[in-house]
What does this fold into?
Amino acid sequence: MEERAKSASEAWLEARAPGFQDLPDEDRRAIFDFAFLWSLFEAEIMEANARADRITEKVDAWAAGDIMGADLYDAELAYFRDRYFADDELTYHYPFLNLRKSDHSDLVEAVIRGANNDPRDRILALLMIVWRLRNNLFHGAKWAYQIKGQRENFTQANAVLMRVLERHGQLA
It folds into this structure.
């Protein structure tokens, strides 16, 4: 199997960023893809200004227009429920989302626990989780543990973003 050529920035990160050289290519790819998908989501869906309140406005508009398609996100929701809630308790991973009150922390927790299955709230909870993954990555919190163990989080977040973009974006 031929080894993929590394970019200058990837080589620089390997040499200088703590733990980066130990990240498997699949982990790097999921994170790189997330950066591009988030940028497209922010441009196409959020008019280049994502915030928790604006994400809520979009989800509310989709709910009002009956164009949610919440069931299309069941696999991703199941993944995040399994990651953040087990044995009738929130897992040790959950606090690391760093949810803030403005991120609808109570709603996200209720959806994760399975106590709230409203379609609008399920989509909002998923997008708040994706929002927190974005903030934790771009504001440096993920470096506290050298971005280890994040591939599946970003793979699932990427699936959410792609589906939202397909359903609600203005893509060619």
Notes: The longest helix spans residues 25-44. The chain has one domain: 23-168.
